[in-house]
Task: inverse folding
């Protein structure tokens, strides 16, 4: 296909995007700009309702914090896995398989496994009780920490894969040079590995952050009925309370918050790529 | 750049792309449509028992095997309201609250009564006077306790407040039917009613130190019992019996304020293309054969057909559908307009 007609390649995706993403989003934005569920009166009531209530702002903050915590956990867990992948060429196939294994099972199953592990009668509490470390079960499940840990495990592949890609691009002789010039492993990691893998880290952060902020199933299953995050709040306002303008406004507010954070990260990414290329 | 010119190949490519994105749904429209029926059910015991008893019985009666979709009543109402002229379901299973919402939105049409002769076997209060729906079951709720961990069973809901039950009570959100009817039962027990719910909210506030977990939906209560997160809750008889069958050590007891009752109905959707078939489906759901089977082990879904006698677990609660008149019920016409307000108030109360 000549270059002049290569635009045809964009037609299928463009059509799908227009019909199933852009149009519904515009519709949601349109609905959010109404004061009543019947959509007869245009106005900003839904946004005012959100902004004027500390409870609503708290739900948004909790959701973004949860996503940030998940990112932090996946970075802590992801670097060692990616490092292991680079250090053990013989085990790469096994490691890659183990990394993407969670992606092959349903989110419901993965989330429910955490319910079983963290419950009062769960693996951790039973082990601690049988070891005599505690007398009564520790309250682990249905806490923000539990949701972050479960999400970190579920989203981990999305952090590890870009990190591996970034680490693979680092010239191994750089580490040797760093070592020869007297830097210890920790200093080499900080000064060489982290800056050079920054593009991968940012890609991973983007994927994990957006995934964690919108993970309705895991947030609901592991978080229980007492923790409220934006996805379930949107579901509840739309389906249970049938307040469509408010639900739509919540969706738009979450979307804009994520887009702002993603844009900031992208700007950071452009700077780091310039840095990597020298 | 070459001048823009569409060749035959380009046209084919465009058409293929357009067809793939669903812009040309001609294929399905041209095919002749066989008689089809899509019905909703609730997830869990309802879905299992409908697949096991109702669908085969309906296929035997009409030759049509319906497509069954598990959907909570509120979700169903939203889906029907969004679809309007082209409803995704022909016959739907409703709780009373969502049913009234559906009626006010004009989502249902009267049953074709000639196709529902079993209506004669229903007590009059189990048939909607407007013909928009027939009650297919009544669910009973009471106090559920874990028999292994709870030595002294609470006599009534007010006992949930005792310090000995600290961290052991389970709640379910007010966005569910169970959560709502329990709050109404609490309000009535404490001198309030559907329009005066403050006593119930005050009770929940006092109860919070004793709350082990809040289930996102009634089904999740089962998980909470199984994982030991909670030992006491208000729950439906049929869910409790289903959990007992799976070996979870539970028992249902009657609160001092009385058993609670939630009724479920089936309705024909307004713009269905097969109203007669949908009405026949309701008829089969009301038949002695199907209701008897669904009332038995392990589903325990209470029958409404007065020819069906209560058996096993349900015999301890009532002899037949007629005896349930005195159970605590909810006036959904009063609750519905304030539902969003109550859900919001509950969420703010229980959120940590």
Result:
């Amino acid at each position: 296909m000549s270059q002049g007609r290569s635009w045809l390649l964009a037609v299928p995706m463009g059509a799908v995007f227009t019909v199933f993403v852009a149009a519904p989003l515009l519709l949601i934005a349109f609905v959010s700009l109404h004061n009543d569920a019947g959509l007869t009166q245009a106005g900003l009531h839904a946004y005012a309702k959100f902004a004027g209530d500390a409870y609503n702002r708290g739900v948004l903050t909790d959701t973004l914090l949860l996503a940030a915590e998940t990112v932090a956990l996946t970075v802590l867990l992801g670097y060692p896995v990616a490092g292991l992948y680079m250090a053990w060429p013989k085990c790469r196939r096994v490691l890659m398989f183990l990394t993407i294994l969670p992606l092959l099972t349903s989110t419901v199953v993965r989330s429910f496994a955490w319910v079983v592990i963290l419950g009062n009668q769960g693996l951790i509490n039973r082990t601690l009780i049988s070891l005599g470390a505690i007398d009564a079960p520790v309250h682990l499940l249905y806490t923000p920490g539990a949701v972050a840990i479960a999400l970190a495990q579920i989203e981990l592949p999305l952090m590890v894969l870009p990190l591996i890609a970034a680490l693979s691009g680092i010239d191994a002789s750089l580490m040797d040079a760093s070592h020869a010039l007297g830097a210890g492993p920790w200093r080499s990691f900080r000064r060489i590995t982290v800056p050079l893998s920054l593009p991968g880290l940012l890609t991973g952060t983007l994927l994990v952050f957006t995934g964690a902020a919108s993970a309705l199933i895991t947030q609901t299953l592991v978080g229980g009925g007492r923790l409220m995050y934006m996805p379930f709040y949107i579901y509840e306002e739309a389906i249970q309370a049938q307040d469509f303008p408010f639900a739509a406004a919540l969706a738009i507010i979450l979307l804009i918050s994520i887009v702002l954070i993603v844009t900031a990260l992208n700007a950071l990414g452009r700077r780091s790529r310039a840095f990597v290329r020298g | 750049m070459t001048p823009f010119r569409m060749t035959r190949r380009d046209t084919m490519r465009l058409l293929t792309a357009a067809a793939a994105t669903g812009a040309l749904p001609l294929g399905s429209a041209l095919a002749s449509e066989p008689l089809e029926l899509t019905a909703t059910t609730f997830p869990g015991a309802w879905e299992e028992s409908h697949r096991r008893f109702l669908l085969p019985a309906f296929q035997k009666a009409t030759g049509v095997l319906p497509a069954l979709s598990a959907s909570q009543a509120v979700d169903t109402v939203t889906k029907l309201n969004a679809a309007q002229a082209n409803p995704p379901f022909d016959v739907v299973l409703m709780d009373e609250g969502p049913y009234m919402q559906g009626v006010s939105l004009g989502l249902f049409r009267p049953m074709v009564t000639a196709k529902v002769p079993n209506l004669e076997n229903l007590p009059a209060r189990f048939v909607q006077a407007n013909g928009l729906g027939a009650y297919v079951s009544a669910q009973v709720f009471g106090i559920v306790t874990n028999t292994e961990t709870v030595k002294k069973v609470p006599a009534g809901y007010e006992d949930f407040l005792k310090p000995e039950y600290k961290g052991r009570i389970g709640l379910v959100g007010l966005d569910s039917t169970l959560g709502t009817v329990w709050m109404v039962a609490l309000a009535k027990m404490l001198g309030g009613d559907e329009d005066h719910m403050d006593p119930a909210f005050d009770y929940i506030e006092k109860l919070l130190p004793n709350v082990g977990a809040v289930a996102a939906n009634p089904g999740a209560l089962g998980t909470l019992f199984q994982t030991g997160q909670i030992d006491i809750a208000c729950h439906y008889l049929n869910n409790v019996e289903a959990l007992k069958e799976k070996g979870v050590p539970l028992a249902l007891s009657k609160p001092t304020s009385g058993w609670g009752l939630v009724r479920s109905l089936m309705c024909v959707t307004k713009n269905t293309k097969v109203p007669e078939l949908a009405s026949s489906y309701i008829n089969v759901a009301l038949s002695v054969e199907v209701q008897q089977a669904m009332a038995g082990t392990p589903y325990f879904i209470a029958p409404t057909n007065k020819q069906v006698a209560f058996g096993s677990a349900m015999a301890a609660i009532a002899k037949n559908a007629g005896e349930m008149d005195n159970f605590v019920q909810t006036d959904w016409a009063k609750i519905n307009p304030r539902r969003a307000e109550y859900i919001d108030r509950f969420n703010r109360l229980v959120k940590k």
